[in-house]
Amino acid sequence: MITLLYFARLRESFGLASEQAELPADVTDVGSLTEWLRQRGSIWQEELAPGKPVRAAVNQDMADLDTPVRDKDEVAFFPPVTGG
Amino acid sequence: MTVHVQTEDFDIGAEILKLRQGNTGIGAIASFVGLVRDLNKDTAVTEMVLEHYPGMTEKALIEIVEEAKRRWNLINALVIHRIGPLRPTDQIVLVVTSSAHRHEAFAACEFIMDYLKTRAPFWKKEQTAEGAHWVDARESDETAAQRWIAASN
Predict the structure, then answer these.
(1) Does B125 contact chain A (CB < 8 Å)?
(2) What is the pLDDT along chain A (84 residues), one digit of tens a residue?
(3) What is the pTM of this model?
(4) Do A84 and B122 touch (CB under 8 A)?
(5) What are the residues whose beta carbons fall under 8 Å from the beta carbon of B20, sequence distance 6 or more?
(6) By C-alpha distance, which of B64, B151, B153, B70 is closest to B114?
(7) Which of B117, B121, B135 sits opposite A78 (nearest CB)?
(8) Total structural domains in chain B?
(9) N or C: which end of chain A has fewer CB within 10 A?
(10) CATH code, domain with B85
C-alpha cells in the first residue's frame, strides 16, 4: 500500500487530495506508477499525458521517472512549483 | 539556520536584529524580500492563494539552506515563506544571510532564492475579476537555478 498525494491544479482536476493504493507488481518506479494512473482514463489520461509538465516527489524528495517506488512510500504529483 | 512556513506577515528589521544579535563575527548581512505583484496584462489580481506541501516544504527549504552553507562560508541564514491568502503589495518571502564578508552573503542569498523558486513545493493561484487560475512556472526561473549547477561543476 502506498500513499498518493495531489497538489494544486492536479488536486482540483482529480477532485482528490490523497488516496491509498495497492500497487500491481509491475509498478516499480515513478514512470510505471504514472502509466498505471493514466490507465484510469479521462482526466487522469489528460493531466498525466507524456510531455505534460508534471513533477513528482517520493517520500518528500523531488523525483524523476526512474525513482523507485516501494510499499509504504508517499508519492506526490504536482505541477512545476511557483513559490517565492 | 532557520526556516519558517507561516500565514503571518514578517518584520524584516526584527528578523535581521535577531539574526545578528551578539555575533561579533558577522561583517555582512544580505536580504531579499519577495512581494505579491500585479503584473497581469489583462485583469487585475485581487487575491492570491499560496498552497504548499506540508512536510516536504520545510524539508526542501532546509536542504536548500544546507546546500548554500556547503557552497559559501555563512554564519547564519533565515528563510520565511508565507502561505494562504495574500494580496498585491503583501510580502511573500524573506531570505536573510549573514557572513564575515559581503560576497558570501550576497551570493548565498541569491542562490537560496533561485533554488527556492524551482525546488520548494509552493503553488500560486491568482484570483481575478474573471476567475481563479494557477500561475504557470517560468522557464527563466529554471534557467536561473541551472546556472548555479553549471557554476559548481
Answers:
(1) yes
(2) 999 999 999 999 999 999 999 999 999 999 999 999 999 999 999 999 998 999 999 999 999 999 999 999 999 999 999 999
(3) 0.93
(4) yes
(5) B26, B29, B98
(6) B64
(7) B121
(8) 1
(9) N
(10) 3.90.1170.40
